[in-house]
Automatic annotation (TrEMBL):
Organism whose genome encodes this protein: Streptomyces tardus
Cofactor(s) for this UniProt protein: Mg(2+); Mn(2+)
Protein origin, superkingdom: Bacteria
Matching SUPFAM superfamilies: DNase I-like
Protein name: Endonuclease/exonuclease/phosphatase family protein
Taxonomic lineage of the native organism: Bacteria, Bacillati, Actinomycetota, Actinomycetes, Kitasatosporales
Keywords linked to the UniProt accession: DNA damage, DNA repair, Endonuclease, Hydrolase, Magnesium, Metal-binding, Nuclease
């Protein structure tokens, strides 16, 4: 798949939907915010799973600024999820949103999940978790299990409200695909880039990408149409990617099943 044929957002005739989801570690907006917003806008996402969103002084203003510059709205997260955040386009209807703080290991940074159930069109639903797993391998493995449990709970909530929903976890896993936690997640969910590679694979570091530690992972009910780093996508310049953050984003096009 080339950089010009990643499917655009659309409603399916059967009530399903094609959704573009972007995962992006933005390093607390400490870099070039203009470049960051240009990258996000060029990707034309319906959903953005953010990691390392601003979470200290005036974090709400920073979140609103990024959403406004990107043509999106804030759904949930930020300081209340310890840096994880979800943004969306006006195409998404928010059915549920919740920020989750994970158990704290003394001496380590406390992590969290930003979670939401979104509906597109009349019926197509998506449970979303934005995550940033620990740098410490044992804690990271426990967090991977908590992530799967949380995704199951969100999916069940969405089904109670409107029938079957797809599910996606997206974020900075702090681990390569051969790592134990990454493999644990990929055993239960589809690793988007492995299933349908599109664009680049490596997400760190932007100037010299050499490892894939950021991912979009989807449930079996979601069809992955393409997934990868949008390096070379129209409107996304290499200069902006390098200036925007210390991670490269991951963009996925997903076909959601129709709900009953």
């Amino acid at each position: 798949m080339t950089l010009t044929d990643l499917p655009a957002s659309a409603a399916d005739t059967d009530g399903g939907a094609v959704v573009r989801l972007l995962s992006y570690n933005i390093r607390s907006m400490r870099d070039d915010v203009g470049a960051l917003a240009r990258v996000i806008r060029a990707c034309a996402p319906d959903v953005v799973c953010v990691q390392e969103a601003p979470r200290f002084f005036r974090w709400r203003s920073h979140a609103a600024r990024l959403a406004g510059m990107s043509g999106l709205v804030h759904v949930t997260g930020g300081a209340t999820a310890n840096g994880q955040m979800i943004l969306s386009s006006l195409r998404a209807r928010v059915e549920w949103a919740e920020d989750v703080l994970l158990p704290h290991t003394p001496g380590l940074h406390r992590r969290g999940f930003a979670t939401a159930v979104l509906r597109f069109g009349d019926r197509a639903g998506l449970a979303v978790v934005s995550c940033h797993l620990s740098l410490q391998k044992d804690e990271r493995r426990r967090q991977a299990d908590m992530l799967l449990d949380r995704l199951d709970a969100l999916t069940a909530r969405g089904e109670l409200r409107g029938g079957p929903v797809g599910a996606v976890a997206a974020g900075d896993l702090n681990e390569r695909p051969d790592g134990r936690s990454f493999r644990r997640l990929a055993d239960r969910l589809q690793d988007g880039y492995a299933v349908r590679p599109w664009g680049g694979g490596h997400t760190s570091e932007p100037a010299r990408p050499h490892q894939r530690i950021d991912a979009v992972l989807a449930s079996s009910s979601v069809e992955v149409l393409g997934c990868g780093v949008p390096d070379g996508l129209a409107g996304v310049s290499r200069a902006d990617l390098v200036a925007a953050s210390d991670h490269l984003p991951v963009l996925a096009a997903l076909r959601l099943p129709p709900s009953r």
